[in-house]
UniProtKB/TrEMBL annotation:
Keywords: Magnesium, Metal-binding, Transferase
Family affiliation: Belongs to the FPP/GGPP synthase family.
Any one of the GO BP annotations: isoprenoid biosynthetic process
CDD domains: Trans_IPPS_HT
Cofactor(s) the protein needs: Mg(2+)
Taxonomic lineage: Bacteria, Bacillati, Actinomycetota, Actinomycetes, Micrococcales
Name of this chain's protein: Geranylgeranyl diphosphate synthase type I
Organism: Amnibacterium kyonggiense
Length: 372
């Protein structure tokens, strides 16, 4: 089995162990709280584990091993349990962010299945509860996201306790804390941008959208996991700088690809309806570039339709074609390539282990061309 495959298995095992330990706690509260654990388990069963992978390779890039594949031969070796636990905690944090993001965006699906708040909404209907099913679903979704945040911090702290070097543990905790502030502020910046876009100064739309994706996604998807992992291994200033120079542009490329998939992705692959970002009214870099290039009449049409929850398939197709004709897709693809190149350039001659540089290079390529 490849290093990546073994890592994913170990992270999943740690997640399962953690949830198994918390099932009796939920059951002791009441039978009604058991679904919190069941939905969490379903939600955490899937995913590409990018954050876990980057955390591991951030650690491996400064720690090193003769052969990373052999390093997994004994999963109890050295600081590896702490690293695996931290990687699993990052996946719990990511799950919390997705639950809250789906609530904010009023998304019906996630990974081809009902989003968490929609599952709770259906449970309300099935149980013939009193009150508004939609409100019940949203309230329950908030609490599930909060619970996953609590669990993420609990698992992170427990994992740091297993780390031999307390200075490294404190450094990793500082990176984790900063990540949580950045992504929460970035999420708020996103909803402000969507609500205030008519007041954004002409010519600033792209910069505003780039700032949103930097803090909402790019930093916490790649740069922060790398920095957390590297801190676990006692990274030097030069090593940390190289990883940040790699991680930030790659994170931007990651989200730019996500923006394209949100408009043009295959629903069978992405697990989201076609054109979902158009229905949700996302003010992405793609949309900002299209608006800049479109004539006034076409821009007005985009502004009127974007974010309409009742968009028909025909209107979605029309918006997709309008954006395509503006040349915005080509420009976003150019930006993706440019940022991936910047990331790879940062690895050239970086004071990191050779195996990690190879693995990070492969991850960069897979992120830039992914279809989901």
């Amino acid at each position: 089995m490849s290093t990546g495959g073994r890592l994913v298995d170990l992270v999943q095992n740690r997640i399962d162990e953690f949830l198994d330990a918390h099932d009796p706690i939920l059951a002791a509260v009441a039978d009604e709280t058991v679904p919190l654990g069941e939905i969490s388990r379903d939600f955490l069963r899937f995913g590409k584990r990018f954050r876990a992978r980057f955390a591991y390779w951030g650690w491996q890039s400064v720690q090193g091993a003769d052969d990373p594949a052999d390093f997994f031969g004994d999963a109890r070796r050295g600081d590896l349990p702490a690293v695996i636990g931290v990687a699993a905690a990052l996946e719990l944090f990511h799950a919390a962010a997705l639950v809250h993001d789906d609530l904010i965006d009023a998304s019906d699906t996630r990974r081809g299945a009902p989003s968490a708040h929609r599952r709770f909404e259906q449970a309300h209907r099935d149980g013939r509860f009193l009150g508004d099913p939609k409100r019940f679903g949203e309230s329950s979704g908030v609490l599930l996201g909060d619970l996953l945040l609590v669990w993420s911090d609990e698992l992170f702290a427990d994992s740091l306790d297993r780390l031999a070097d307390r200075g490294n543990a404190r450094a990793a905790r500082a990176e984790f804390n900063r990540m949580r502030t950045d992504v929460t502020a970035g999420q708020y910046l996103d909803i402000v941008a969507e609500a205030s876009w008519p007041h954004v100064r002409e010519g600033r739309e792209v910069d505003t959208a780039l700032n949103v994706i930097t803090y909402k996604s790019a930093k916490y998807s790649i740069e922060a996991p790398l920095a957390i992992g590297a801190s676990l291994g006692g990274a030097s200033l030069a090593q940390m700088a190289a990883l940040r120079e790699f991680g930030l542009p790659l994170g931007i490329a990651f989200q730019l690809r996500d923006d394209l998939l949100g408009v043009y992705g295959d629903s069978e692959v992405t697990g989201k309806p076609a054109g979902d970002d158009l229905v949700e009214g996302k003010r992405t870099v793609l949309i900002a570039l299209a608006r800049q290039a479109l004539p006034q009449s076409a821009r007005r049409t985009v502004d009127e339709l974007l974010g309409d929850p009742e968009l028909t398939p025909e209107q979605i197709a029309m918006l997709q074609e309008t954006i395509r004709a503006s040349g915005a897709i080509d420009e976003v693809e150019r930006m993706i390539t440019e940022n991936v190149d910047l990331a790879l350039d940062a690895l050239d001659g970086a004071p990191l282990t050779g195996d990690a540089i190879d693995a990070l290079s492969r991850l960069a390529e897979s992120i830039s061309v992914r279809s989901s």
